[in-house]
Amino acid sequence: METVHFTQRAFRTLLNCFARPGTAGELERDYSVEGLYAETITVCMTLLDGEVSFQTAAECQEINQAVRVLTGGQIKPLEQADFIIIPHGTKKEQLLEAIEAAKVGDLIDPQKSATVIIELDEMTPTMTAQLMGPGIETVEVVELAICEELIALRASKNKEFPLGIDCILIEQSGRVMALPRTTSVKEVTN
C-alpha cells in the first residue's frame, strides 16, 4: 500500500508542475536504478505501466531492463516510445537525436506523443529563461540547465499545436519542473 501512496504523492507533484509551468516541485526518493536519479525512478514508477512504452536516449539496456522490472513498461525504439528518458551525462548529440526522434502525435490523436524526461546535469551552465503560456499569469522567469539547441528543437517539435512533446526536467537536487507543449520558452539575454 505504501507504493500506491508514494506514487499518488508524486502524481500530485507532477500535476501541479504541469498545471503551473515554471513551478518547481520536490519528489521523494524511495527507489533507485544505477545511472538514473532516484527522482527519475519516482517519475517512472508514477507514469509508466504495462500499457505504455519507453526508451532511454542512448538505448542503455541496463537502465531499460531495470526500469522495465520496476514499472512493467514496454521497451520500444525512440520513434515509438511514449516516454523518453534522458539520463544525466548524456552527450548533447544523443540528447538532441532523442528529442528529434520523439513522436508528436497526429491531429486525430495528439495524445499519442512522447513525454521526454530529462535529467539535468550540474555541469551544464544555467540560462535564464522566460516561460509563457497557459498556467502562467504573465511571464515566469526561471533558471534552466539546458542548452539553446534543446530550446530551439523543442520549439520546432511543438510548432503545430496540439501536436508536440511535453518535457519533465529533473535536477540532481530533487527539484522537478514541467514544460508542457503549450509553454513557450525564450532565453533572456543580458
UniProtKB/TrEMBL annotation:
Transmembrane segments: none
Entry-linked Pfam families: PhnH
GO molecular function: lyase activity
Keywords tagged on the record: Lyase
Protein's name in the database: Phosphonate C-P lyase system protein PhnH
